[in-house]
Write a structure and sequence with these properties.
Layout: H1 2-17, H2 22-32, E1 44-47, H3 52-58, E2 65-74, E3 84-98, H4 101-121, E4 124-127, E5 130-140, E6 144-146, E7 149-164
Parallel strand pairs: 1-2
Antiparallel strand pairs: 2-3, 3-7, 4-5, 5-7, 6-7
Length: 165
């Protein structure tokens, strides 16, 4: 059953990192608004469920970062004779850092809007029995000291229907 979650995480990471992924959406949004953030680095997308401290120590404090992981699986047997027929909840944890609190929230919002744009454009079948209906939930965490400056974390939870024979 672990492969069900892993395949979902890999599919979502692929959507975020492909040529029309988060970075492309961010660039397009900023260009449409004729607005620039001084440094718009491409967000590093990794697979794993890490705390902020553990990620900073192990991977390094380069921001923005996105972590994709499976938070929950439910085999509800919607289709009775399938090996897995239910829902997996995938999470994209977006972490952004800035030396100024005033700009941190605004910059984080731009990355979030780009991420949500990717999700909205990827409704439907992701392949191999994975279906995304477009429903997501966003949780905003308060900014706190982290990395070299301040870090804000935004969590986007995506429910994906899975039917695998």
């Amino acid at each position: 059953m672990l492969t069900v979650a892993t395949a979902g995480v890999v599919a979502l990471k692929g959507l975020l990192t492909n040529k029309s992924g988060v970075h492309a959406q961010l660039q397009a949004r900023l260009a449409a608004e004729k607005r620039t953030i001084i440094d718009v680095p491409e967000a590093k997308v990794a697979v794993g469920h890490y705390t902020l401290d553990a990620a900073d120590r192990a991977i390094g404090g380069k921001y923005p970062q996105m972590y994709v992981y499976c938070e929950r699986m439910e085999n509800s047997l919607v289709q009775k004779f399938q090996r897995f027929s239910g829902t997996i909840d995938l999470v994209v944890e977006l972490r952004h850092s800035s030396d100024r609190l005033e700009s941190l929230e605004e910059e984080s919002q731009y990355y979030l809007e780009a991420l949500l744009s990717v999700l909205e454009n990827s409704r439907g079948e992701w392949g191999d029995g994975y279906y995304f209906g477009g429903k997501y939930e966003v949780r905003f965490e308060a900014a706190k000291p982290g990395g070299r400056h301040f870090v804000q974390t935004l969590k986007v939870k995506v429910s994906v229907q899975v039917h695998i024979a």
